[in-house]
Amino acid sequence: MYPRFSLSQFLSRILPLLFLFSPTSAQLAQNNEDPTTINTMEEFSGYPIHEPPHSFFSNSLSVDAQTLQKQIGELSTFSDSPAPSVTRILYTDKDVLVRRYVKNLMGLAGLSVREDAIGNIFGRWDGYESELGAVATGSHIDAIPYSGKYDGVVGVLGAIEAINVLKRSGFTPKRSLDIILFTSEEPTRFGISCLGSRLLAGSGALEKALKTTVDGQNISFLDAARSAGYAIGQDDLSNVFIKKGSYYAFVELHIEQGSILEERGISIGIVTAIAAPASIKVDFEGNGGHAGAVLMPNRNDAGLAAAELALAVEKHVLESGSIDTVGTVGILDLHPGAINSIPSKSHLEIDTRDIDEKRRNIVIEKIHQSAVTIAKNRGVELSEFKIINQDPPAQCDKSIIEAMEAASKELNISHKSMISRAYHDSLFMARISPMGMIFIPCYKGYSHKPEEFASIEDIANGVKLLALTLAKLSLQ
Ligand SMILES: [Zn+2]
């Protein structure tokens, strides 16, 4: 059913929107500052043109929270583990079906849908100056085993709803608006995190690596992609790359995955920087021996070398003097792992993160020096010190942060600046586009487990803020 308006309702409700959001709108009239035109328009519309345009606009944004909640519930049923947990792994049947579900919603929102060779999905709303760099938003819909409903999903379904919000308000974008569903943010299947955004952002190293990448079942990446309908007849994936400058801005909506917003009762986190991890693998080898027979002066204990290095990691991280520097030894294996045997081998995996790349790399260098010194002092061999990845952190763009802050104020939604300690597709989008992120609270900061939860009120606030931010950036 179409909504019916009386003429007076039409004049008071619809006309102001037409004036404000068509390209020949009040905004342009404001720039002309022609008093006659403005007076005529004011009389005709019944609204003073000099009132800030956004006040009409922000009032006219309404999120269909009920439908959005229903969609989040529906999407969670595409899972390989029983509810309330969600398991959705790249290129599995459930992943293919959920992609169809999202493409359908994009189509219903009036977006033109395209997919690239690895299944990054794009839904575009053409702007009236479509030759300008587009404004993009989006996130991921894959889920690690036994995780929750909201990680990534809020940024995809929320983005589609943000477009619907703008369409219902009568908004017309100047720059085109794109929603991107990124392939495989989680590293579950092929051990590569942010695979889709990393390749999209032009990683030649990844493009090369994907030709020989296999999963735990020895299925190649390319075969898996083909089974899902992608990369058909092509080994060269460099056509996935998007040129720097194609996007004017990228904004991702995401659950915080921490508890700061919830604890402080704040609705929105405006992200200023994304910390990036470096991962290091270390192996020590000693002679081992009988726990009773080999006396202490004669030992070269690989286990103690690992223990000493773990403490050194903590020390070097603390020495940085910044609360933003963190380091974790999440894996420490001893061989042969018997109570009466001196460890002959030890294996550590170290994760260190920061928002400042230089500071983080200094920590890595100090960890390396410590590993060398410890090996020497204990008479063990440092058989491996391998930096697995060392992605640079990203700073959010100042003008996008300003747009988000202005939007929060107009919508009267409480907000605070914060750092993203986890990393996201946005980290890689930052390589080709100015980037920003919006966080919403999540229950106790739970994520990557079935208890993950965000209230529909918080999601709706995030969607509204995303919609207004996209609108502002689109008109720039
Ligand atoms: Zn995520």
UniProtKB/TrEMBL annotation:
<dbReference type="InterPro" id="IPR002933">
    <property type="entry name" value="Peptidase_M20"/>
</dbReference>
<dbReference type="InterPro" id="IPR036264">
    <property type="entry name" value="Bact_exopeptidase_dim_dom"/>
</dbReference>
<dbReference type="InterPro" id="IPR010158">
    <property type="entry name" value="Amidase_Cbmase"/>
</dbReference>
<feature type="signal peptide">
    <location>
        <begin position="1"/>
        <end position="26"/>
    </location>
</feature>
<keyword id="KW-0479">Metal-binding</keyword>
<keyword id="KW-0732">Signal</keyword>
<dbReference type="GO" id="GO:0006144">
    <property type="term" value="P:purine nucleobase metabolic process"/>
</dbReference>
<keyword id="KW-0659">Purine metabolism</keyword>
<protein>
    <submittedName>
        <fullName>Peptidase_M20 domain-containing protein</fullName>
    </submittedName>
</protein>
<keyword id="KW-0378">Hydrolase</keyword>
<dbReference type="Pfam" id="PF01546">
    <property type="entry name" value="Peptidase_M20"/>
</dbReference>
<dbReference type="GO" id="GO:0016813">
    <property type="term" value="F:hydrolase activity, acting on carbon-nitrogen (but not peptide) bonds, in linear amidines"/>
</dbReference>
<comment type="subunit">
    <text>Homodimer.</text>
</comment>
<dbReference type="GO" id="GO:0046872">
    <property type="term" value="F:metal ion binding"/>
</dbReference>
<keyword id="KW-0464">Manganese</keyword>
